[in-house]
Amino acid sequence: MRVTCLVLAGPNWSLVATSCNKTVIPRVVIAQSMPQSTAPKPGSQSAVRTVTTEADGLRALAALLEAEMAEPFERVLDLIAEITGRLIITGVGKSGHIGAKIAATFASTGTPAFFVHPSEANHGDLGMIGRDDAVLAMSWSGETTELKGIVAYTRRFKLPLIAMTSRPSSTLAREADVALLLPRVAEACPHGLAPTSSTTLQAALGDALAVALLERRGFTPGDFHVFHPGGQLGASLVHVGDLMHVGEALPLVASGTTMAEAIIVMSRKSFGCAAVVDAGGCLIGIVTDGDLRRHLGPDLLAQTVDTVMTANPKTITPETLAAKALEMVNSSNITALMVVRDRRPVGIVHMHDLLRIGVA
Are 144 and 118 in contact (CB under 8 A)? Predict the structure, then answer.
């Protein structure tokens, strides 16, 4: 006799059907499935260990900046702020890669800077360094052989030399006018070989210098836009005055206008609204598609805009950044903003205008 054996199913049970040709007494077999392991994966454990190790290094750097590094840090700020030329950043290997990034950050935040590779400097690129420049040399050990030429050049022509290193007794630290001494922290690499925590500290200290100089100079978002005209960042720094519709494009109606006339203006101007102004030309309200729906009735067309409009609408000035305009549109759940100066409408900006230039 062929017998089918069932393994019953439940929340933590599985159902299995088997068959055989022997004459047996049918029975029910109940088997519980094994729970899945919730142990952390090796990869995520490694990631947490790496991030934690580098975060410990950053905390050590922050502590130094509040203590013995505070004075040399201020001296470096003074030195860079006083030069009339550019800040030249140099380094080899991973320090060089971080140096190139730091140079880009300085340049985009108001401090003229560029990266010079020390090997190339030894073969002619020293001519790129002017007599009004200063040099920031980066080396974790402070004994990088390739830096000797550029260090000697700064000493020969009396150029300010800033060292970023971890060894106070190193050649680079001794030769420098000011040395920023990084804490000697453990690398995140389990072998202690690959630059990981050390390069994180270099990048963080470079950012700290750039931001401190930015704040000292009073660098504004407008200044930032000069160096970032492209991409979403550039778009967010465009002013509303560069985007707004003006003149005949404005959907304006006077106080006392009937809704029948206002709807015609709204339809012709295609912004989904009409701004209401008083006899002096000052904005007193706005009629939107939402206002039309809320007042829909048999006498809507005979009413005046004053009874339908939303008083004291959201407004913005031409000098406001596009990013701020988009934030206002999103937070207020509206699609257009009237642009005013001295309470008088001078333009209108629609959400589509902001999206078109790539602010979002």
Answer: yes
Positions of E strands within 54-146 = 87-91, 113-115, 134-138
Locate 177 and state its tokens. Answer: 């006018």
Domains contained in the chain, number = 2
Q: Is the pTM of this model over 0.70?
A: no
> Does residue 228 have a pLDDT over 70?
no
Any known ligand binding at 117? Answer: yes
- Tokens standing for residue 249: 């494009």
Under 8 Å CB-to-CB from 181, ≥6 apart: which residues? Answer: 64, 68, 69, 72, 165, 166, 167, 168, 173
61 and 208 co-located in one domain: yes
Q: Out of 169-173, 277-281, 356-360, which region has the weakest mean confidence (pLDDT)?
A: 356-360
* DSSP secondary structure of 166-209: S-TTSHHHHHSSEEEE---PPPSSTTS-S-SHHHHHHHHHHHHH
- One domain for residues 116 and 170: yes
Domain of 326 in residue numbering reads as 240-357
Give the pLDDT band of residue 359 (cuts 50, 70, 90).
low
Whether the CB-CB separation of 110 and 214 falls below 8 Å is answered with yes
